[in-house]
Specification:
This protein is mainly α. It has eight helices and two strands. The longest helix has 23 residues.
């Protein structure tokens, strides 16, 4: 299968989004910010060592299974930076929704679109964009009105489709 490695990556991405969203809902803001800051700082240190050529078997095995070769953990770093921004600036329910949408909807959009030939924009597909919109709508509608859920899902789908930077940074605070 052409995209065999994407399945475990995106399942991990979705699981991380749900777990992080639950942490945001149930832990105090200051503890969350300290926890996420620790992950970001630890990740930066490990990334610097990896970029310098140092190898750590545990991280190498993890990155081989879940990472993209050229990223060296940047997707995960951006995920936590986006979560940090959301927790810092928004009420916990909205921050949690943003992180869950990032994890689940971004993961589903890749899984649903990766074998499609129906490109909408660059490497984005109609099926992936539709999966992102529907799943983000369902997640957001749990805590908001129908109108808000539709509006925010359209906005997030456009961000996911056209963002010039990693959507892991933009979706949680959006």
């Amino acid at each position: 299968m052409k995209h065999k490695k994407e399945y475990p990556r995106k399942i991990f991405h979705m699981t991380l989004g749900i777990l992080m969203g639950l942490l945001i809902l149930y832990f105090r803001k200051r503890y969350l910010l300290a926890f996420i800051t620790g992950i970001i700082c630890g990740g930066l240190i490990i990334r610097l060592f990896l970029l310098k050529g140092y190898r750590f078997e545990l991280f190498d095995a993890f990155l081989r299974k879940f990472g993209r070769p050229m990223e060296i953990g940047m997707g995960a770093m951006n995920f936590f930076i986006g979560a940090f921004i959301a927790v810092l600036f928004f009420p916990r329910e909205y921050a949690a929704l943003g992180v869950i949408v990032l994890g689940v909807s971004d993961g589903l959009s890749t899984l649903m679109g990766m074998n499609s030939k129906n490109k909408v924009y660059i490497n984005k597909t109609f099926e992936g964009t539709t999966a992102f919109f529907i799943s983000s709508f369902l997640i957001i509608y749990v805590k908001t009105s129908l109108f808000q859920a539709v509006l925010v899902s359209i906005l997030l789908s456009l961000i996911e489709l056209f963002a010039p930077v990693d959507d892991n940074l933009l979706i949680p605070p959006s």
